[in-house]
Amino acid sequence: MTVPQPSPAVDDLQDPHRVAAARRLFVEVPGPAAYDRLSGLAARLLGAGHAKVTLFTVRDIVVGGHGLPPGVVGGRALLTGAFSERIVREGRALAVPDARADETLAGLSAVTSGEVVAYLGAPLVSASGRVVGALAVYDPAPRTWQDDDVALLEHLASAVVAELELAAARSAIGASLARLDVALEASAVGIWEYDLRNGVLHWDERCAAVHGIEGPLEITDLDSMLAERIHADDHEAVRTAMAEALAGPGEYAVEARALHADGTVRWTVSRGRVVRDVRGERVRVLGTVVDVTDARAEAARRMAAVQRAAAVAEVAAQLANATAPAELAEIALRGARVLGAFSSALAVLDGTGLLRVHLARGLADTVAAAAAEAQVDLPLDAVVVELDDELPTQYAARHGERLLFADLDEAVARFPRMAEVGAALGLRAIAALPLQVEGRPLGSFVVTWDTDHAFAADDVELLEALTAQIALSVSRLRSEDERAAAVAAMAEANQRLQLLADAGRVLSGSLDIGEQLDRLADIVVPALADWCWIVVTEEQGRLQEVAWAHRDPARRADVADYVHAMTRGMSDEHAARVVTRTGRPLVLPELDADRIARSLPDLADRETLLRLEPRSALIVPLVAAGRVIGALGTANGAERGPHTPGEIETAVEVGRRAGLALQAARLYEQQRDLADALQHSMLTAPPRPEGCEIVVRYVPASEGAEIGGDWYDAFVEPGGAVVLAIGDVVGHDRYAAAAMGQLRGLLRGIGYAGGGSPAQVLAGLDRAAAGLALDAMATAVVARLEQGAGDGTGDEAVLRWSSAGHPPPVLVLPGESVRVLDPGTADLLLGVDPARPRTDHSCGLPRGSTVLLFTDGLVERRDRDLDAGTAALVAALEEYGDLPLDELCDRVLGRMFLPGAEDDVALLAVRVR
What we know:
By secondary structure, the protein is α+β, with helices and mostly antiparallel strands.
């Protein structure tokens, strides 16, 4: 094939249209296998040692070859790149008997090294007429190329292009796939179209030329066309082929002799396919016709090889789109029919010691008829046979041996059971070839003939090529199935991991175990079951209902009714009691009436359960520290079915985590109760002296079970003055709490016995703590409230105080503003330097005044500093200052102490009467 040469000013190698055409084909190259076989075929037919298929996009790329060293396919054509580049530029075949004698080639490194001496290449021409690459053979020794060699290579180049175009057409064309497949398969030879709706036959110019007339033509009288243009001996074959295509699978193929007006007779081969419209109705037959007269006469063997290679390429293209083994047998039969085969079968190993045999047309029809006569139901997908040595199908799959029997007698001599099978199926010749990929057995490919058939070398080569393609497709389908199964398993595992992550988040997000288990039940359903319940053991060992859920919110109440009835009336055989007693999960794939009756003696309780329509159940223990403290039960209806192993494993892990969370919550509650009791045992009720009212509050932090170091105290000295104290030991743990108790006791003793000023009391406390090695730091305010003294009026109280690094008191004057009693400088914390002097401060308190002492947890937290918190406190006191003292303290705490606070708060308020 020769392409008209472009203008010298245009470089075809860089032509964007040519590059686009090549890239379109290269993108769809399915793999080197087909091109390796075509290269190998070229090498064998031409007697060359090396062959190569090269595509040219912006650079040359080897897509297949024969006799090439490893790593060449997929890379650049380093040895022959300049040769194939010349073919692409010139658009015609290149025959080089001895490159050393060609001055344009002699200097190439491949030639000087002696690796490439004789070279023959043919252009790969796409359907658009663009040269997209080259098919070449070469040798390190000179040789003379004949015209037949060039013609053969051009034919093979057409087959390569057909393979490329078939691959590109599958992804680039939708509804027009059949028409383009046929056109490309025929390598742009004559195309015809038979419109079934109006009975008109269309011939393009090449089709008309094949029949010796000028076209294109539109033929309305088909009988006249047959009489005038087709040999009389072939009329019946043409009509039969068309009838079978229309009645059967839609494939048309016939060989007929065309009668030319000058009296010559030309052999033609026509192929076609029936095309259906969107409603599935047959609307036209698309086909091609090629003149095979010269090939028949001059190179019958070579042309047969080309036809077989094209058949393999077509089958390979169709196999690449197959989605099930049943399709593979039918597709492979199209290739086997080149050898006149009657039918074929594909046997695939299923991994259980059995073969699943998929029958193509012919065998399938015969077996179906025999089964119908015997009134036996056949499987819809495949016939399952045992993997033994009694028939060629199983033997080839099991032992990997190729079996070829030219007649039934040969087959019976090796496999006696073939006498019965062959007679039943009408078989005469049979070929059974093993399907293997990298030594791994996959099954066998069986081809049958209803006549005797001698297996020539070319026949065997074609069968092996078909078998190799089928093996790759079977391996691909199996890999896709395994990959799909792996993806499904991974998705299921990810879902289980996500469920466990969600469960962990819920169970660690709150110390309210009731809230935790409620949210856990909502996570378990529907991820693991249709509905569920959770019960926990009380200290007396009774089971208490705590949570339940249903995938249908409208049926949640039904689950609640059942859980109430279950905990009230279940017997010792109920799954909840069995699991909490044994500590082992209980899987019930099928819930039967007898078990339900034994578990729920009361008929009304059973009816409550049956309203939920459970068909299977799973109950897992809630375990912590080796002790069962509850159970999680899940149930499914008939639609969902029993729990899978993955769901069971996940439910057990959820139960384990829920048990740990439940145990932690119980321990927290116990420690919290203990901490509160200990804290309040140290924080005594305030005295009730005359002339003033004292209110105290203590609020522990919301997180953690440890008691803290915040404290308050108030007592009356022997002289009648009221001593007020508040403090905060640095830290928030049991050591801080212990230090708080010691400092409070010391301060109480020093203040009551010494009777000194607040600064003296704090100094004495600091010295005593150092001397007793308490090793603690704390802030504190000590104040003395003296009634009716200090300014000579006798009607105003005096507050004297000293601060050890503590937030200053706040004074609320009656009917006036709120004032922070901040002297501007603060003394050191307790426990820093006992020798440093401390300072007293004082202020008058009109009757009705309120003084508020507090720890820093009231005004300071992560999202606001001390100044901002103090300003917020002042604002609250301005709003609530006239309220009764108890209500004032509650309102202040309600506004200032937010849920989730991380520090305790101690509050002491005194109001002068």
